[in-house]
Amino acid sequence: MSMLSTLPFLKPVHLRSPRSSPGGQRRHTLPASEFRCLSPEDAVSVFEIEREAFISVSGDCPLHLDEIRHFLNLCPELSLGWFEEGRLVAFIIGSLWDQDRLSQAALTLHKPRGTAVHIHVLAVHRTFRQQGKGSILMWRYLQYLRCLPFARRALLMCEEFLVPFYQKCGFEALGPCEVTVGELAFIEMQHPVRGHAFMRRNSGC
After folding, report:
1. Domain edges within the chain
2. Which of 160, 155, 185 lies closest to 171 in space, CA to CA?
3. Cys-Cys with 30: which of 37, 65, 80, 86 at CB 3.0–4.6 Å?
4. From 120, 125, 142, 155, active-site residue
């Protein structure tokens, strides 16, 4: 049984009924809205959204195309994409980390024995911004992490102007992050993640 089949909040969400052909027979259509883990085949679509979202603001991307492929090959189960009618509109990519705080190595490494999920990037396609999609996707991602037996907390680093957004998502600031990218400095934030046994008792995971 796949992980997806056991997690109700990752199953496709059908927001409208399938269309019917003139003869009255239903024809197959893509789900209006679907959440699923990403695959390496999604890497180009991911990078196109990320590049537009970040280069205009910071001049660089958190992950370049080869790094996106790297993480989607190593740990696709720590990613989540939001698709509307088959089109990627928002995504999160994460990997595992095995230390209390993030270091420069966390930008490129996946530590399979780690218990902290390092969220590398969250991005929303430009035509779907200002609709609350980033917050919704983060909520679904955190719900998903709570059903993973090894996940204990989520970590991320962001520029200071994004701290209020992540605080609204339930993250707390840990202080300045030791990681720097060029002249950019970051705040490190974390969110506790309860283990699988708790969620199985309380939410049907």
Report:
1. 33-154
2. 155
3. 86
4. 120
Cα dist. 12→4, 36, 113, 120, 170 in Å? 10, 8, 30, 24, 25
Q: Which is the catalytic residue, given 38, 78, 95, 148? A: 95
State the catalytic residue, choosing from 102, 122, 148, 155. 122
Q: Is position 141 annotated as part of the catalytic site?
A: no
pLDDT per residue as tens digits for the range 127-177: 888 899 999 999 999 999 999 999 999 999 999 999 999 999 999 999 999
Catalytic residue among 65, 74, 107, 109: 109
Told to judge if 125 belongs to the known catalytic residues of this protein, a careful annotator would answer no
CATH homologous superfamily for the domain 33-154:
Gcn5-related N-acetyltransferase (GNAT) (3.40.630.30)
Under a CB-based contact definition with an 8 Å cutoff, are residues 102 and 118 in contact? yes
How far, in Å, are 6, 115, 182, 196 from residue 9 at the CA level?
Answer: 9, 22, 38, 15
Is 162 annotated as catalytic?
no
Q: Check 70, 144, 166, 191 and give the catalytic one.
A: 166
Percent of the chain with pLDDT over 70: 77
Active site residue 109: yes
